[in-house]
From TrEMBL:
GO cellular component terms attached to this protein's record: cytosol
The species this protein was found in: Aurantimonas aggregata
InterPro entries the UniProt entry points to: F420H2_bilvrd_red/Heme_oxyg, Pyridox_Oxase_N, Split_barrel_FMN-bd
Pfam families with a match to the protein in the record: PNPOx_N
PANTHER family registered for this protein in UniProt: HEME OXYGENASE HI_0854-RELATED
Ranges of residues in domain Pyridoxamine 5'-phosphate oxidase N-terminal: 5-133
Designated name of the protein: Pyridoxamine 5'-phosphate oxidase family protein
Keyword terms of this UniProt record: Oxidoreductase
Listed GO MF terms: coenzyme F420 binding; oxidoreductase activity, acting on the CH-CH group of donors
Superkingdom as given in the UniProt entry: Bacteria
């Protein structure tokens, strides 16, 4: 991946804090949900309830698709990314604690959370490792995207 495209991907990841993630239900139907995320480089982390449908889906099939973008009134200013990634439950306690510390840092204007941040034993934390990333940038032309295999 060239450095300019990687910088654009990292900028998009840094500027946003929610994504839509699609997992596969055991019956084969996709399930798309909005979740908060944090990232370190190209690796993304998100958490969900221990007994959530997302956690059950990922126990069945670790493949996900996700999108990160924002609304804009200017059609030619649309930017974002979509990603095919592999999800893995974080089992290392130190990595889980790091991921949990990264989440509230995405909300710097908030000095306190409305509730206590859950501990690693109270939620399921997933690490997403990208396989393919599509970077959408209409400033380069209507519907323009650059495809990157990681």
């Amino acid at each position: 991946m060239d450095s300019e495209l990687e910088a654009k991907i990292l900028d998009i990841l840094d500027r946003h804090r929610i994504m839509t993630i699609a997992t596969l239900r055991p019956d084969g139907w996709p399930q798309a949900t909005t979740v908060g995320y944090a990232s370190v480089g190209l690796t993304l982390y998100f958490l969900c309830a221990l007994d959530s449908q997302k956690a059950a889906n990922l126990a069945h099939d670790d493949r996900v698709s996700l999108t990160i973008d924002h609304d804009t009134p200017d059609l030619m200013a649309i930017t974002g990314l979509s990603m095919a990634a592999l999800a893995e439950a974080v089992t290392d306690r130190a990595e889980a604690e790091t991921a949990l510390r990264l989440m509230p840092a995405k909300y710097p204007a908030s000095t306190t959370l409305p509730m206590p941040m859950p501990g690693p034993d109270e939620v399921r934390i997933f690490r997403l490792t990208p396989v393919v990333i599509s970077v959408l940038d209409y400033a380069k032309g209507f519907g323009h995207s650059d495809l990157v295999t990681v």
